[in-house]
Amino acid sequence: MSTETQRYSSVAKALHWLIAVMIIVQIPTGFIMHNLAFSETKYTMYQLHKSFGLIVLTLSLLRLGWRLTHKAPALPDHMKPWERVLARITHVGFYALIIGIPLTGWLMVSASPLGIDTKIFYVIPVPHWPVPVGEAAESFWIETHEVLAKITIGLLVLHVGGALKHHFVDKDSVLLRMVPSALHSKLRRDSSPKEAH
């Protein structure tokens, strides 16, 4: 099977896009709510942010499990060694971040001296981690959470830029292999992908 005909499974694509959309929404709203004055709106935003963050963590662990048990499509033959290394680093980095960001958020609320309960959408209770509680510990996890979010922004730019380069410059099938089936035919080019030659 050529690299042109290989595509990610429906499960892999669904997890990829669900997590991507939630991360893209979670990061800016996280920075926005952090800078708001305390109010009922800010409290509600935090509770929703925690709920979606825990969903991202769950989906990310499922995605990692799926990835470890299902082989990803091979990279195009024309890719240079440094491009392959960069692609590998980017993917590993994303797995670390999509798990690390919600996990540090969970550790942050666990370390908070406020002791506010965590419930997914106000219904499902989630226990806090048995970590040191106090302002210093909370500040550490807040800072770590924010740093990871900023790194994710940079990695997203790199990832999207790389995908667009593959599609518009290299004219290969890398982007097509992860897009939803409904968009595949629209994005597919009339010319044969580079790796098929």
TrEMBL record:
Lineage: Bacteria, Pseudomonadati, Pseudomonadota, Alphaproteobacteria, Parvularculales
GO-annotated molecular function: electron transfer activity; heme binding; metal ion binding
Keyword flag Transmembrane helix: yes
Keyword annotations: Cell membrane, Electron transport, Heme, Iron, Membrane, Metal-binding, Transmembrane, Transmembrane helix, Transport
Subcellular location(s) per record: Cell membrane
Gene3D superfamilies attached to this UniProt entry: Transmembrane di-heme cytochromes, Chain C
Name of this chain's protein: Cytochrome b
Cofactor(s) recorded in Swiss-Prot or TrEMBL: heme b
Main location: membrane
Residue intervals passing through the bilayer: 14-36, 86-109
Protein family (similarity comment): Belongs to the cytochrome b561 family.
Coiled-coil zones: none
Record bears the keyword Transcription: no
Pfam family name, one: Ni_hydr_CYTB
Domain of life: Bacteria
Membrane-topology annotation of the record: Multi-pass membrane protein
A GO CC term assigned to this protein in UniProt: plasma membrane
Residue span, Cytochrome b561 bacterial/Ni-hydrogenase domain: 7-180
GO terms of biological process kind: respiratory electron transport chain
